[in-house]
Structures are given as structure tokens and as C-alpha cells.
């Protein structure tokens, strides 16, 4: 345990918490990384890397979530890990809708969670597939979500970070909820104290996807089961329309809209779904549909949107799975573990697999925390650009970007020689990359654009922007270097690689 200098006590605490859960049928002895072959990175979170792995004894595939102890301790995220483990253990008896925790173990540097492998990826990647996802799919998966929320309520757990990225599909296309690091165990006193602190932290340094956050969480009041009902409303809205109910150019503006319940429905939005969403997206948590049900969530079950659902036997999932080559059902074929790999995971192998992931030509590995501004940055309609610009006028960065629409923003450390300075990096139409001193709000400069500008991700945190006369060394402390590179590349392609019209 002494491998992490200066943090012996903390690691000791982790050690005691990371003992495995009661053995399941096939895991009767303590496992270690050398019992698994690690195939490839299938996901990355703020604090973790998730690998597809195969048990060398049973050949069974798992998703193994790996957390670097140093990182967890440095970022003070240990309670997330411990809470996630606790919640997954509570849910381990539930046969449906939740990823199962088979065992946990650790080595000197990492913690490992061995989980059900959700073979068919994230719900999010299917929502915008026109012609595939329809109201029948929405109804079916909204039903599964309600059943999952009923189970969570029964187990006295609030997920608190429900969003399409955290809803995965198993091999039979049923949902599996993941990511319980922010969950609240309502009955646990210890957890109440822990979670109040957490709420304060969340408010001050919000991380994650802003679009699904409930107003009570933003107002710093107590969050409860109804916060998940709010998220359910947002997800149903998104399943029906492919859009977020609350969208704006920055997280700050999204929060303002949430607090004012400022959202609209597209014209052809299904009528009964609209009524359901309106009854879930209610500012007062107690007034949300289902919030005061004696038998949860009977009032949601009775809503007209679900009138043709047999809640005791919801039947097989609808067929919406794409079948053309290159579409998402190739995910599983792409995810085969090569036979020649040695079991175990060390630093060298972990960085090789992560680099493989960064360099994969069609990178379909889900990554975290895509900000509103960075999604399809260049595919906005002109009316949407105007609307966003109007809203942006309220934003404190607006005056620094010469009236250009901000597509992505975030704090980075800009390194020059030995020194690094914290800067707000603002990617805008134009194209421009402005960097601002966030303490003084002074514009310090712009990275000059040209056709030669090129990005280079070095790892999850560090990325370079090469220009003919200088390379800018940038570090995203949150670890979203890849997302920065993608957004910059997209803007670059938009301005420099569009076909020239005759
Ligand atoms: P966050 O930044 O939300 O806190 P995290 O570090 O808790 O993230 P997860 O959300 O648990 O990490 O996992 C990161 C990604 O890895 C997920 O978005 C998902 O795409 C993938 N993933 C996680 N668990 C599984 C699983 N059991 N099967 C397949 N993919 C998974």
C-alpha cells in the first residue's frame, strides 16, 4: 500500500473498502488483474477508464472500470468510488436494468470494478438516428426507465446523474444503468452528511452534463427521488425530439433556463409524450408526477402515454437496431479481444490501450462531459446561431470574443517554457481560439488560424495546437484534451475542407 507516498491512511481506507462483495457463482476466490485479458478501452469517465476484458478462466467478457489511485486521491474523489461500490452492491440482487458488480480488487496503483459488459453501447448514440428511433422505442425504453426508477426507489437510492450517456444496452437491448458515483443512499445517515457536502461542491464546481440537472440541485436544496423524475422528463423529451429541452451556448445559460423552466416543444412533438414531460418537468419537486405516489410510480404508469403498456410483461424490445455496415451494431464485432494478448494491466499496457483508443480512425468510444457548445459545433442552423448569440450577450465572456459565437469554452493550462498559466480557452466561429486570463478577464491573445493549424492529443489531458510559427502546449486539467481536439478539428474542417462550389 505504500506505493502512493504520503497518503497511507487514505489508501488504507480504500483497501478496506475495496474488499470483494460476497462471491457470486463463478467468482469464488479473490481475483486480480492477471485473471483478465484487457482488450481495449470502451469508455472513459472523468475519473476512470473502462476496458473490455475477458476472464482467462471462464472466457466470459466483462467491462472493467479502472481508477488510478493517485488521481482519485489528488482530486479527492474517493467518496465517489466508495459510494459507487456501495450502491452497486445494494443493487447486485436486482436482475434487470442495472450493471452488475461481479467483484472489485486493487493493485498498488489502481482500483478495479468488474462489471457486466453492456455490449450494445450507450442509448445516446441511438437517439439521433433518424428513421431508426421512433415513438415506439421511446415508449419501450421510457417504460424500462420507469421500472428501473421504481427499483431504485424501493432500494432507497437516488441516481442523481441520470442521462442517456449513463444508460447502456445489454446484449438483448435492455437498459443497464451505470455510474452511481453521484448517487445518494437515502437511508444512510453517513451518506446524508457526505451528500450535503457533495451538493455544495457540485454547485460551486459543477462537472458533468448540465442538461439533466434538476432545479433543486442548482438551488442547493436537498435532492431526492424527484430529481431523477426531472431527469426522466428531460430524457423522454430527448428521446422524442432528439434535442435537449434546455439548451444554450454555455452551462451558465442552461442553468438559468432550467431555473426559469424556460423550454419549448418542437411543433410535431407527440401529444401524450408532451403532457407527460410537462408533468415531470415541474420546478417544485413535490409536484412532479410520481413524486408523492404511495406506490411508486403508479401515477406515471397510469399516464396516457403508457396506456398500451402491460407493466407486468413489457415484452421484447422494439427492433430499431441499425443493420448497415459501419453502423452501431458493428460495435460488438469491433470489440473482439485479440487472442494473443497477455493477462494483466500495467502502466505501459494501459497507456498503449489508451493511445490505441485516441488513434482509432472511427473513434466510437464514449467519452464524458460533452458540453453543449461542443456537440456538432458546425452544424448549427443560422436561426440557431442567432438565437445562441442573443443568449450569449448575457454571458461574461461575450465581450471578449468580438461578437463571435462561442462553440466551446473551458479552462486550460497554457504552457510556455517552464511556466503554465490558467486561461479560459474560447473556440468560436470566425474561426478563433481566444485565451483569456480568467482572474482579470483580460484577453491575452488568439491562436492564429490558418489551413496549416493542426491539433495533436498527447494524452487525456495534454494537447498541442500546431501553427506554422508556434506550437501551443495546452493542458485540460479535467482530462478532455481529446474533446478539445475534436472540436477544433471540426471547426478547421468547416472552414478549410469544405468543397469549393463552382
Ligand atoms: P463520470 O465522468 O460520469 O463520473 P465515470 O468515471 O464514473 O464517469 P462511467 O460513466 O462509469 O465513468 O464510465 C465511462 C464510460 O465507459 C461510460 O460512458 C460508458 O460508455 C463506458 N462504460 C461504463 N461502464 C460500462 C459497461 N459496464 N459496459 C460497457 N461500457 C461501459
TrEMBL record:
Keywords: ATP-binding, Cytoplasm, Developmental protein, Kinase, Nucleotide-binding, Serine/threonine-protein kinase, Transferase. It comes from the Eukaryota. The keyword ATP-binding applies. It catalyses: L-seryl-[protein] + ATP = O-phospho-L-seryl-[protein] + ADP + H(+); L-threonyl-[protein] + ATP = O-phospho-L-threonyl-[protein] + ADP + H(+). One of its GO terms (cellular component) is cytoplasm. Residues 36-306 form the Protein kinase domain. Its EC number is 2.7.11.1. Residues 317-343, 358-382 are annotated as: Disordered. GO terms for biological process: cellular response to oxygen-containing compound; intracellular signal transduction; regulation of developmental growth. It is found in: Cytoplasm. The keyword Transferase applies. ATP binds at residue 65. It is an enzyme of class 2 (transferase). Belongs to the protein kinase superfamily. AGC Ser/Thr protein kinase family. PDPK1 subfamily. This is 3-phosphoinositide-dependent protein kinase 1. It comes from Aquatica leii.
